[in-house]
Design a protein that fits this description.
Length: 135
């Protein structure tokens, strides 16, 4: 079987152009792939990098008026949601460029697309259920 090098090069060129367009769009949105989550009242806001590295945390005075254990659980719940979003954003950015094998590799690393509705609400009355804690 003979390989059509011109066709293969055209496929590579398209993937490179697509990756470049996605990179430019990402730069226009702030430059880095991340995930964000906020409490319903906006008092706690977290930003994480893919993989879960916390890169931003904003707390309102009302957010810190609760006991520290509750505050910590709320932050962890939001960080978990933001981590899922960051992984989904990473998947969305790279999967089209990497192809099917690359997409499977991304998913093996935990970078999977998520339906944001699934992660939309954190129940602060029982935050441990969102971070795998004891019941």
């Amino acid at each position: 079987m003979e390989i059509d090098i011109d066709r293969e090069m055209a496929v590579v060129d398209r993937k490179v152009a697509q990756a470049d367009a996605q990179a430019q769009a990402q730069i226009a949105r702030g430059g880095r792939i991340s995930g964000q989550a906020s409490s319903p009242d906006g008092g706690i806001q977290v930003v994480v990098a893919p993989g879960g590295l916390l890169t931003g945390l904003t707390l309102s005075p009302a957010a810190v008026s609760v006991d520290m254990e509750t505050l910590a659980r709320n932050i962890m719940s939001l960080a978990d949601r933001a981590t899922r979003r960051a992984g989904s954003n990473m998947h969305k950015a790279l999967a089209p460029v990497l192809g099917e094998r690359g997409e499977k590799h991304l998913e093996s690393l935990g970078y999977v697309p998520v339906d944001d509705e699934d992660a939309a609400e954190v129940d602060f009355s029982d935050p441990l259920k969102h971070i795998g804690g004891r019941r």
